[in-house]
Amino acid sequence: MKIIAFNGSPRSGGNTELLLKETIKGIVDTGLSVHTFNLNEMNIRPCQDCGGCNETGKCIVNDDMDQIYEAIRSADRIILASPIFFFSISAQSKIMIDRCQSFWCEKYLLKEPIKAGIYGRKGLLLLVGGMKKEIGIQCAETCAQAFFRTISVAEHEKLFFLGIDAKGEILHHPTALKDAYEAGRKLVELKVK
Ligand SMILES: Cc1cc2nc3c(=O)[nH]c(=O)nc-3n(C[C@H](O)[C@H](O)[C@H](O)COP(=O)(O)O)c2cc1C
Fold it and tell me: Which of 7, 49, 73, 105 is the most exposed place for a label (fewest CB within 10 A)?
């Protein structure tokens, strides 16, 4: 099973990274491995809306997205982890998602959605925000849903933590790390029919 994760936080040792690491631990403990893309460290140009992918479903900009396109195409499980910035996902996450417009063209214009492998395609959305109100997370969730739909991830689980602001504050949450660990395990669980 191929599993990839996107860390959309720029804060090293921050809440998103801590949560994601725990999710990955839950997966690794089942004997599987995860390839993590630390988006803040990657060279990814924002989508230029050049139309270069309209007829082919392939982006004509060559940068670090090349490795992400390949990884998304062949992944069975995809994790998106992001802090909430200004009521949405981080810019690092959004830039990567916008560049998935080529998958949108492939799916909706060329009618060639990414095919699932034998394990199906499932996702997990991890969001952390400093505000306590639910409204702070809605926009980010909608954006992530559009991302998953575009890359043909038919179902995804979600784990949101509100009111977590200071670096490392998530460590003091009563259940967060355990929840993240369990979410990882569950993501790779194969249900016997
Ligand atoms: C630029 C910026 C914008 C933010 N905007 C919001 C926001 O709109 N809503 C919210 O709940 N938290 C907001 N926050 C707080 C972060 O979501 C919070 O500190 C989170 O724990 C950061 O996660 P990290 O440690 O993984 O970076 C913002 C933080 C920054 C730096």
Answer: 49
**Atom in ligand 1 nearest the alpha carbon of residue 167:** 25
Q: Is 158 helix (H, G, I), strand (E, B) or coil?
A: strand
Residue in 82, 75, 90 with CA at minimum distance from that of residue 122: 75
Verdict on whether the full-model pTM lies above 0.70: yes
Domain span at 138? 3-187
Evaluate whether 1 touches 119 at the Cβ level (below 8 Å): yes
CATH number at residue 28: 3.40.50.360
193 part of a folded domain: no
Please report, in tens digits, the pLDDT of each residue of the chain (193 residues total).
Answer: 999 999 999 999 999 999 999 999 999 999 999 999 999 999 999 999 999 999 999 999 999 999 999 999 999 999 999 999 999 999 999 999 999 999 999 999 999 999 999 999 999 999 999 999 888 899 999 999 999 999 999 999 999 999 999 999 999 999 999 999 999 999 999 876 5
CB of residue 160 inside a 6 A radius of ligand 1: no
How many domains is the chain built from? 1
Q: Which of 92, 91, 106, 93 is nearest to 59 (CA)?
A: 106
* Residue of 6, 165, 171 to test ligand 1 pocket, by largest number of atoms within 8 Å of CB: 165
DSSP 171: G
